[in-house]
């Protein structure tokens, strides 16, 4: 058999390592593609994590916000999230800086898709609910109902033959009781925080994992009435211009608030304490709130770049261990990469060349290239948010002009920055819009000279 003609056929076996959203999305699309091509396939997912458990052991550790764009895709696919999974429908965002804040609203009010806050696992550690709240478990159950087999055993190793005519072997099991399963195609959907990623790197087909940074997350239990009144169904986003934080948010989820922090370096639990105790952050908590003795916290890794060669003959990686949007929409990136990989496998083939041209190339164009531009935009944003005089002047001006073109334009720009609803190239075009920049020149100039004079007076007084 020629490498260029490796294809899925009737009764082909697909093994997916990882039962999170990327694995479920791949399985869902593969089932549909098999129907379209009038072939039968056997899909097995290896998932050693129990998503019905509370805390980090059952959770894939993310802020778990479903963007409106992903919600629209899930609805189109017939995946309707029940009330037990949706912890809170999000109305908008409130953007905090060191000296000012502004409420952001959905730019397209005609779009009926919702932003939804969920849990990846079955809620925080020490929570006492009885229902299953896990979004990941819901998706996995969805594909199980479509005929996918799930084996709740860890994958210990993977054998990829040098001869592409020979099929891969997955070694799995606990302790010394290992079993083997052969597959025509193996899909890696295990995520960047999985230990198996090191074993994939050692297979020597050229895979280089994405660069990562360690983030920090915490679940804060609060009275649901307080959350409703204080947050008003908004996600609180903080651009405080202080190190080491690049992005910070507080996401309301019924009777909990998820704190999510991303820094310019690996974060620690001490960074979490510094953030929680910041005066701007404390305003979003009850005045008598104190850090509980026991709480749910994790320090997961997120990607800063894309992987190199996340594929070879009969093997492909999807999700954040392959290519994902930096800082934004990890769940939707899993949806996109899984869809592209499935389409490549069924419509082109499962050779290395097929995945290179029909999966990796379009995924890089859609996500990775945009990330490079995003890194520049985020660096500029970090610089601007450190200039309190500039941020306050511009935001207060726009607040005063609410409903005007310039207010709507800045709202859309900030909305796309915090949600990831638009690619970074579109965000850059919005930021550099000539009319937008011209209208802000007098505001910027006035604020600059005011800040300059204030600093001179302060120095004279000293």
From TrEMBL:
InterPro entries: FAD/NAD-bd_sf, Geranylgeranyl_reductase. SUPFAM superfamilies: FAD/NAD(P)-binding domain (SSF51905). PANTHER family: CONDITIONED MEDIUM FACTOR RECEPTOR 1, GERANYLGERANYL DIPHOSPHATE REDUCTASE. This is Geranylgeranyl reductase.
């Amino acid at each position: 058999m020629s490498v260029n003609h490796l294809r899925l056929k009737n009764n082909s076996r697909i093994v997916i390592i990882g039962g999170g959203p990327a694995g479920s999305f791949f399985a869902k699309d593969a089932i549909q593609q098999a129907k379209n091509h009038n072939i039968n396939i056997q899909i097995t997912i290896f998932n050693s994590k129990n998503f019905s458990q509370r805390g980090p052991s059952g959770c894939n550790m993310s802020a778990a916000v479903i963007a409106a764009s992903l919600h629209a895709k899930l609805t189109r696919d017939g995946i309707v999230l029940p009330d037990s999974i949706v912890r809170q429908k999000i109305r908008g965002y409130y953007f905090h800086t060191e000296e000012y804040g502004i409420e952001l609203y959905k730019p397209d009010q005609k779009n009926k898709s919702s932003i939804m806050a969920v849990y990846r696992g079955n809620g925080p550690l020490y929570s006492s609910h009885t229902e299953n709240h896990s979004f990941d478990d819901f998706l996995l159950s969805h594909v199980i109902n479509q005929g996918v087999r799930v084996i709740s055993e860890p994958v210990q190793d993977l054998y990829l033959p040098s001869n592409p005519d020979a099929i891969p072997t997955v070694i799995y099991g606990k302790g010394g009781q290992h079993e083997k399963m052969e597959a025509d195609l193996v899909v890696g959907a295990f995520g960047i925080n999985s230990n198996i990623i090191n074993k994939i790197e050692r297979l020597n087909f050229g895979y280089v994992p994405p660069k990562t940074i360690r983030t920090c997350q915490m679940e804060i239990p609060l009275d649901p009435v307080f959350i409703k009144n204080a947050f008003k169904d908004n996600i609180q986003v903080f651009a405080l211009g202080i190190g080491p934080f690049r992005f910070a948010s507080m996401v309301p989820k019924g009777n909990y608030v998820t704190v999510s922090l991303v820094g310019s370096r690996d974060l620690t639990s001490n960074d979490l304490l510094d953030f929680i105790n910041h005066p701007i952050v404390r305003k979003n908590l009850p005045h008598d709130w104190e850090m509980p003795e026991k709480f749910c916290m994790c320090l997961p890794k997120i990607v800063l770049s894309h992987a190199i060669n996340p594929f070879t003959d009969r093997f492909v990686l999807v999700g954040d261990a392959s290519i994902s949007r930096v800082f934004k929409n990890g769940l939707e990136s899993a949806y996109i990469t899984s869809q592209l990989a499935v389409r490549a496998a069924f419509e082109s083939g499962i050779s290395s060349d097929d995945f290179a041209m029909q999966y990796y190339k379009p995924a890089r164009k859609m996500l990775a290239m945009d990330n490079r531009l995003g890194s520049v935009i985020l660096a500029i944003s970090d610089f601007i948010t450190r200039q309190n005089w500039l941020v306050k002047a511009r935001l207060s001006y726009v607040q005063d002009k609410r409903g005007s073109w310039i207010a709507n334009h800045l709202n859309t720009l900030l909305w796309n920055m915090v949600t990831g609803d638009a690619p970074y190239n579109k965000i850059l075009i919005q930021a550099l819009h000539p009319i937008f920049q011209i209208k802000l020149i007098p505001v910027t100039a006035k604020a600059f000279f005011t800040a300059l004079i204030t600093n001179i007076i302060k120095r004279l007084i000293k």
